[in-house]
Specification:
InterPro entries: Kinase-like_dom_sf, RIO_dom
Number of helices: 9
Mean pLDDT: 87
GO molecular function, one term: protein serine/threonine kinase activity
Organism: Pseudoalteromonas shioyasakiensis
Catalytic activity: L-seryl-[protein] + ATP = O-phospho-L-seryl-[protein] + ADP + H(+); L-threonyl-[protein] + ATP = O-phospho-L-threonyl-[protein] + ADP + H(+)
Low-confidence stretches: 219-223, 230-249
Helix content: 40-55%
Number of strands: 10
Strand content: 15-25%
Order of helices and strands: HEEEHHEEEHHEEEEHHHH
Pfam families: RIO1
């Protein structure tokens, strides 16, 4: 049922193309408030699709649209940045599609005890710096599954569901959020580089980890809490009951 609806949404976005059920496969089965991740592949398209259709109704009506919106806006703000996909579209309020990146997540490489050249991590560091210059923090780069080593050996960042613009926050919190992203770079560098992590970067990672242990939110849950509260307030203010009261004031 969900798959046929998803194919219909794809066809609505690209009406000239015939989408086949055989091209659709599940990459990751979402649970509860997590999206199901699909891959659609045929002669023309190779897409990753995140979809919340399976989630409980209150997730579909509250946090799912916020997660999809956050990911869409994050990708839009980083368009034309090497290391972030350029082609993406919102299929519905609770589904998004973007180009599949052929490669291997750093988490998988770490489990296989593989190594990458230092130049990969220098490029990764530059990519994160470019993202920050665009005013965006990812907030989940310490999760090595969100960084892909592409077939040509370049870093790609995925999963911008937690990405936000940091300008609205106090300066001390902006520094912490940017530090969370950069510590993800150095964590990957430490685990996967053929050569040891340069001392200055190792000191940075050590100091950030020390602070992070005493930080109650630890980066990513800041975004979760922010989105949750925003969604709840939005739904309350848009409810018929509240509108009827406001109309009488």
């Amino acid at each position: 049922m969900f798959e046929s609806s998803l194919l219909a949404e794809l066809h609505a976005q690209f009406p000239a193309h015939q989408f086949s059920p055989e091209g659709l496969s599940v990459v990751h089965t979402g649970r509860f408030a997590n999206a199901i991740v699909y891959r659609y592949k045929d002669a023309k398209f190779d897409l990753i699709i995140k979809d919340f259709q399976h989630s409980p109704w209150w997730v579909r009506k509250t946090i799912a649209p916020l997660f999809i919106n956050q990911e869409y806006k994050g990708l839009a703000r980083l368009q034309d940045v090497d290391g972030v996909v350029d082609n993406f579209c919102r299929l519905s309020s609770i589904a998004i599609a973007y180009d599949f990146i052929e490669g291997t997540p750093l988490r998988q490489l770490a489990l296989q005890q593989q190594h990458l050249p230092s130049e990969f991590f220098k490029e990764f560091e530059r990519l994160v710096a470019k993202m920050h210059r665009r005013g965006v923090v990812h907030l989940d780069l310490r999760n090595l599954g969100n960084v892909i080593c592409s077939k040509d050996g370049k870093p790609y960042i995925i999963d911008f569901q937690s990405a936000i613009r940091f300008a609205r926050f106090p300066r001390w919190l902006q520094r912490f959020m940017r530090g969370a992203d950069m510590s993800g770079v150095y964590k990957a560098w430490h685990k996967l580089a053929k050569d040891s992590l340069p001392q200055a970067k190792a000191d940075y990672l050590h100091d950030f980890n020390h602070v992070r242990k005493r930080w109650i939110f630890k980066g990513y849950p800041i975004q979760r809490a922010y989105l949750w509260c925003s969604g709840a307030v939005t739904q309350i203010l848009n409810s018929e009951f509240v509108r009827s009261i406001l109309d009488r004031l």
